[in-house]
Predict the 3D structure of the following.
Amino acid sequence: MPQALQASLWDGVDPPALGPLVPDRAHLDATAWVDVLPGWLTGADDLYQQLADEVPWRAERRQMYDSVVDVPRLLSFYRAGAALPHPVLAEAKQRLSAHYGEEFTTAGFCFYRDGGDSVAWHGDDKGRGSHTDTHVAILSLGSPRPLLLRPRGGGPTTRYPLGHGDLLVMGGACQRTWEHAIPKTARPVGGRISIQFRPHDVL
Ligand SMILES: O=C(O)CCC(=O)C(=O)O
Ligand SMILES: [Fe+2]
């Protein structure tokens, strides 16, 4: 039986639904923190497949020193005001805005097709995040992949496993004083879709 069909027989009877928004906070240091809520979104097997099939994914290429290389993941960006591909994602955006007291306006989608896809160490600091405390909320679907965090000045790496339906929110000074990454893995992993909700001018 194909994997996608099998998954939908197990889980497809339940529509996607968000549970209570009661994350656990870990303080990375005095000014940066991470909130984690495993399984915030349930019943999302069909949603994962719908997003994989229907989001207008783009493959990007970027200048890297003197060559142009493929960005190792597929991307799609829903700007402020754009209709999201499923109502439960609009609900997630609205509930995150109410909970964190800052309006999440945009949604970035990343599709990690397999363990060869990744995002290198970076902060979301091409905007307000370079000088202002803000939030970046990540909803993870599909195969589990760890999100790594490390202080910019150097120091130990912390690993947050992100599974199907899990929420992770980076807050405070996290985008300018810490870096995050999704490393490649040689393990055989399936696809993962990450949805990043960001406030105005956080990129
Ligand atoms: O895949 C993720 O959850 C993180 C993606 C990310 O850090 C970014 O697109 O800025
Ligand atoms: Fe990021």
Q: What stands out?
A: The longest helix spans residues 87-100.
